[in-house]
User: Which sequence fits this backbone?
């Protein structure tokens, strides 16, 4: 699995420009007026991982397959979107389908690019979006409440368990508290996930700045950094226009040279991916062989059979054991045969928790 990240924000904050740059496509039309994006554009990108390239070289793999990340470019939301303003709440539904929300805020001044509120204030913009998502969540829960009440009266166990949680979340939302701030018990947490609340989604703030502020940010980004710290959320500063220029440089060496000239060590895509993985608690394990080397993404804490299932369901069903080499050991030994000879390949059973960078060989029988 990779993960799916929905890019949300007000109109004209640079969502489509960023989407195009991150996916190195022109799939989303970008223009200086609201509602250019009518349908959500989806783009897949390969997750850069130098570990994969190194083990592929050692394994002399014919093919290298990185893991994938999907970006969804969602139309600009405006104040009143939950009541149908702008293009209405049809786009709010797209947010329910993503794993995480990449909340893009405008942190650049440019008189040639209009702002729907007539001023640049990223904190206020982010609060506008969250308010709309809270209102949409309230509407969703209120519509669920009636059938749940009916089910509870009829003795439905799931309805009886869910109804108090819905009431609790509704009370919080009505008081201006988004779902992610609501304390849930161990029993409530899995039920809450089934409700599909947008304000429960993990959020990564992305500050879109001008090229000159890409390395160090500006006063607007400092305010957003303070907000992110207070909320315990991640934040990345990125220049969508700069990312577009970098994407147009096909040669990775040229990209690195250009970024270094601006005081940057890596692309915005790399920083977004790293922050996104941390946000969702994801790690990568690797498989290597002469045919191919491949990266696989799993949630942190996944046990060996679950990792095997990412490769193929038969491997999880017939799992016997996993032969594991830590990435550093694989690299130091110079490949699997030498690592095995040096005693660095371990045989692990069903309770083994996969570690980031583990190189796996799954033994199974169906």
Assistant:
């Amino acid at each position: 699995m990779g993960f799916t990240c929905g890019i949300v924000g007000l109109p004209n904050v640079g969502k489509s420009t960023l989407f195009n740059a991150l996916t190195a496509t022109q799939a989303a039309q970008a223009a200086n007026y609201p509602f250019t994006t009518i349908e959500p554009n989806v783009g897949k990108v390969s997750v850069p991982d130098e570990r994969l390239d190194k083990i592929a070289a050692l394994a002399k793999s014919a093919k290298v397959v990185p893991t994938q990340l999907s970006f969804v470019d969602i139309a600009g939301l405006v104040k009143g979107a939950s009541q149908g303003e702008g293009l209405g709440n049809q786009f709010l539904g797209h947010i329910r389908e993503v794993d995480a929300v990449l909340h893009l805020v405008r942190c650049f001044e440019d008189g040639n690019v209009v702002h729907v509120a007539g001023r640049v204030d990223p904190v206020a913009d982010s609060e506008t979006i969250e308010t709309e998502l809270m209102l949409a969540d309230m509407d969703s829960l209120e519509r669920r409440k009636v059938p749940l009440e009916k089910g509870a009266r009829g003795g439905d166990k799931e309805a009886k368990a869910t109804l108090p949680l819905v009431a609790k979340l509704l009370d919080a939302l009505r008081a201006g508290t988004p779902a992610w701030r609501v304390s849930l018990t161990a029993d409530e947490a899995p039920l809450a996930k089934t409700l599909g609340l947008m304000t429960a989604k993990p959020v990564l703030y992305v500050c879109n700045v001008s090229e000159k502020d890409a390395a160090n940010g500006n006063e607007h980004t400092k305010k957003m950094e303070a907000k992110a710290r207070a909320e315990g959320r991640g934040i990345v500063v990125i220049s969508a226009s700069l990312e577009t220029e970098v994407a147009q440089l096909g040669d990775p060496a040229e990209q690195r040279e250009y970024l270094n000239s601006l005081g940057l060590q890596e692309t915005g895509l790399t920083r977004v991916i790293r922050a996104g993985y941390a946000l969702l608690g994801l790690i990568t394990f690797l498989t290597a062989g002469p045919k191919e080397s491949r990266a696989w993404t799993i949630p942190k804490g996944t046990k060996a059979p679950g990792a095997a299932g990412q490769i193929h369901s038969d491997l999880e069903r017939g799992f016997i054991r996993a032969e594991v080499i830590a990435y550093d050991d694989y690299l130091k030994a110079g490949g699997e045969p030498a690592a095995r000879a040096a005693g660095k390949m371990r045989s692990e059973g069903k309770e083994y928790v996969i570690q980031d960078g583990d190189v796996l060989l799954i033994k199974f029988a169906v």
In short: The longest strand covers residues 292-299.
